[in-house]
# Entry
Amino acid sequence: MFKVQNTKAIRNLAKKNYESNKKRNRTAIIAITLTTILFTTLFTLGAGIIKSMEYNNMRMAGGAAHASLKYLSEEEYQKLTKHPLIDKVGKCIYVGTVVDETLVKRPVEIDYYDKVCAQLGFIELKKGTFPRDKNHIVLDDLTLQRLGITPKVGEKVSLDIDFNDRIETVDFILSGWYEGEPAFTVGIGLVSESFVKAYLPGRGQAYKKDFDINGSIRADLYFNNSKDIEGNVQKVITDSGYAIEENADNGIHYGVNWSYMSASLDNNIGSIVAVVLGIVLIMLTGYLIIYNIFQISVIKEIRFYGLLKTIGTTGRQIKSIIKQEALKMCLWGIPMGLILGFGLGALFLPLLTAHMNGGKSSLNFSPMIFIGSALFAMATVLLSCNKPAKAAAKITPVEAVKFSGVDQGYTKKQKRTNGSKLYQMAFANLGRNRKRTVIAVISMSLSLVLMNAVFCLANSFDMNKFVSKFIDCDFQVAHASYFSNDYLQEQKEVDGELVAMLEAQPAFAGGGGVYTPMGVDIRAEYEGEVTYYGQQMHFDKTQGIYTGIYAMDDFNLENLDIVKGELDLEKFKSGNYLLLGLMDDDYGNIVYDEALYDIGDKVKLKVLEETITDPNVSYFDEAGVAYDKEGKVIKQPTTEVYGREKEYEIMGFYRMTYTNTSRTYGDLVTFAMPVEELKTYTPQISRMTYLCESIDGEESQIELFLKNYTEAVNQTMSYCSRESYKQEFFEFRNVLVLVGGALCLIIGLIGLLNFVNAMSTSIIARQKEFAMLKSIGMTKKQLLSMLTFEGIYYAVYTSIVSIVITLLVSYTVLKSLTKAMWFLSFELTLAPLLIACTLLVILTAIIPRWSYHTNNKKSIVEELKDGE
# Structure
């Protein structure tokens, strides 16, 4: 057999056939565009969320450095930072902290940064220069605003700086300023290296001996990539002649930046699975419509392919014609989809990242987003046209002439005495090509199921669960440091004037305080083994375990969640009883295993008077382990001396929450007692926080008062409210509905487009049939009614399939998902689906009529001639 060079002829055939099917091409290009939009939106959001999480986490972690070497001397810094693995290194010297009540809500740390360190720490000057002289300083605009200083180069700034060994007032000139990050809880002030030498001469150079961090150096390391960061930093340390064991004489303290996703890929399996499922879902959605388009196209042009077979065209060449046409459609559809999809992703990304720590979105412009989206879209198209192309390639010329597009086994004889009804004819027509019908129904059902899943998930957002996790009253008032988990009872109690003014408000309904002791260390006696931060500790009666003691007013006691036992308030206030506090997990389940005592047990509280340290102790490491001069561990380095003792009985267990604790959990056991009983240990008690309720409907009045007081009267005070958490809850839920609804709308458009395409091509293919029906007396009105019934049947089938699949998905996937997320409570809703199904019935009744009027404008005679 001779090999004929007919590539050009096949290309011309594909081109001519492509140009003769403009309507099909438009439909296919729209489908490819929508499919590409979904891929590009998914990849843009996925890459953007990962980059935004990294960016925001880096900001919260303090910078973009891969790792840091801490508490270095100048000699150690110079030796360690010459390692070839290091791409760049930033130098930071810790100086001290600013002492100023106006900065309590956002404390300021004073450091020296070189330019690399500033770059890695996201400090970009808006105006001015980095400090050069001893009296130069750089501050962020948020700090300047709180200090009442205009962000202007040359402004005078006077600060009280705590150098740890002293507090000194220093006068500066503002050499530059940068834009502060509101979500970052600490501000950074930068001074020059000459300032460090002048105010901290010789300090921070022997951390192992004096534990003085002021003046010590931190080296921020940045490697060539973020793979195996910990392995790299350990190699830097060991290759430089130091040890990675911090307790060793030449040990170096180091830390790995937890914000890098690549450093903890195993923790992101859920995100990877979600992206994979998204890709599969989009490919399925695109496949259903593009496959149907090509399947219908092949059926419509089957005689054309049969004629090509008669003149010697091979099956391989016919497949090539179809795939060339598909690729031409990709050239139009994919670029449009990439542009629109990226724009849609860029639009949704800030909405999705608004509730992250830091709240800033970082759009990823990686070319891999576009390459990946284009490849997946093209793969979907080629997969979709593969089966129809095979069918066209296999058909013989004789089969092509006889082919009618009706499934085998469809035709069967029926005897009727009363004629055939229009709705019966319409129902029978659905079986002419069952595959096409099934694909159209599945394509439309998919969007409906996903849409209802989004609304079902949004409906499962449990506001009470979400809000009660953070607050169990209308308002909580405390010192600003309390909400930053930095409560220091000696200095930072609730302002008495604020409490008095709050209780005088017309909308005030009741309130009370939670108190802690000052200047006294109360501990509980316990004998046995206790696990403390993963370490087994043994206690005997000569010792006391770390104990958290809180006293509460009647309002707080009455509103405690007693999870075991009961609270007899009058009996409790006798001073002989305690309530034991227990934590709960993310799902609200009390961790009873952490209870060291049971209800009815006797507990002895005793006051620690003195701790005598063994004279052989040379130093303690960061974990609290004691060592002698030779580096040997001392098992019992201290002896505790106790004074006053009193025995109590455990009355009940209560739930520890954000509102009745200091929000720091370093104690082995926590107790609540009456206020008067706490005063018997020390007359100095600190009101840690104050909780209150407002009159129903009058919350805004209390909110306005607290807002004005904490912003204008006393900025060291702060508050949170139930309404603010409700607002955050609704914003979070609305983002899900908006983004999920938009993506479902695109999938819905694909499904509807599939139906339009199926009906249009069906009407075009049946023109001769319609002409014959009209020639034997069927009116145009009857014909339109039959087509309307067909459309309605599509809608009914779609509705039934959607409801069945929705119920299956809801009670399996969604129910499991809601159990895995603490703020969700599964609640099935079918209302969105039923509304959508109603609209679908209307659309499927209208579309066939529109399609018929669009495609059938010829007379009966012309239609009969065209069908020959």
The first helix runs from residue 7 to 19.
